[in-house]
Design goal:
The chain is an all-alpha fold. 88% of the residues lie in helices and 0% in strands.
Length: 59
């Protein structure tokens, strides 16, 4: 059970980092991409799910 929490946290963190890098690079190029926002949203959902699973393990 703990592997899901660990993998969800790692995946969520990686997706959020990729999203931030994508947003920074798109601003430097003067372009507007939508994919970093969607990737960031998926990363936040993964982090929320991992947090919910961690809380459920504690109870």
């Amino acid at each position: 059970m703990e592997i899901g929490i660990i993998l969800g946290t790692i995946l969520g963190a990686i997706l959020v980092i990729v999203s931030v890098i994508g947003l920074i690079l798109s601003k430097e190029q003067g372009k507007s991409y939508k994919w970093p926002l969607w990737v960031g949203l998926a990363g936040l959902c993964a982090l929320l799910t991992a947090g919910g699973n961690a809380l459920r393990m504690l109870i």
